[in-house]
Design brief:
Length: 100
């Protein structure tokens, strides 16, 4: 997920912030954006979620923000629950995933 992805779509986070170019730099890909459905289901819409640590795919991630449900329509799969800012050179670039 590139830093400009949500900028181009004009989608603002419900909480926190979107990815920045710094988040895309190699070694800085430790952040995650949650989608609204996951935030409501798994975290009871906790407004204090930003800044918390979360383990995804065995890697620690810091929650940067919560994107509204309409962000899913803008390109993320209906079942996607989170997105990471993997660098463009990474084989995982544009990655999103599921949280059960």
């Amino acid at each position: 997920m590139s830093a400009s992805y949500f900028d181009v779509l004009g989608v603002e986070p419900i909480l926190g912030r979107r990815f920045t170019p710094d988040d895309e730099q190699p070694g800085n890909d430790t952040s995650v954006l949650l989608l609204e459905g996951l935030w409501r289901r798994a975290f009871a819409a906790d407004p204090g979620i930003v800044g918390r640590a979360l383990l995804l795919d065995g890697r620690p991630r810091t929650i940067l923000g919560v994107m509204p449900a309409r962000a899913r329509v803008a390109g993320l799969s209906e079942r996607s629950s989170w997105a990471t800012p993997d660098p463009p050179s990474s084989p995982c670039w544009g990655r999103s995933g599921f949280f059960s």
